[in-house]
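Researcher: Structure for this, please.
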Amino acid sequence: MSGEPRESLAQILGGRRGALDASIPPVGFVVGWLAAGQSIAWGAGAAIAVAVALGAYRIARGGKVRALVVSLAAVVAAALIALHTGRAQDFFLLQLMSNVASALLWAASIVIRWPLLGVVVGLVLGQKTRWRRDPVLLKAYSRASWVWVFGQYTLRVAVYGLLWWSGQVIALGVARTVLSWPLVALTVAVSGWVLYRALPPEHPGLRLAPEPSSDDVPGT
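Model: Predicted structure, token format:
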């Protein structure tokens, strides 16, 4: 590995489409809410319409139907919450609570020595749980996972929570956009830096050395 450049975490985890798409319906809600004189019903309708149009476009481009259905369901649920409470800022309540849950889940995964960054990367690389048998890699994933806890989820909770509490609907829409793909990209970059800094130069890297087959082991 010493002569080969290590691929970045961003290269392993791949595109930005999901985070980017998730930020568009909230913008539609704010625009519809403002255009109709702060009507929650019109804002909700605009968000759902944007989500449907975006989903149809992604399906036409070969996107996965299941992922798009889940995204649309989240937008509908957010719209129903706002319609039920009669408060426009509650359209963002589901997003706030999901980030609270994510922060707690990622932190708990580190404590029990199943850091979620390792789980995700292991699945992407087809390693299943083999990475956990490497103490150095397990420790590196644990350190890098804290970046996700504090640098992404806790930050979102603090920003969304403050704006939601004060009823700043427009600011919530802006924050929802800024703290989507740009923050995800920054989190991936920083956590990747932390991850690789924790690996010694002689370490084979995230993909690990291939496990020997039974034919390669003497005496088998």
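Researcher: Any notable elements?
Model: Residues 213-220 have pLDDT under 50 and may be disordered. Residues 15 and 109 are 24 Å apart (CA to CA).
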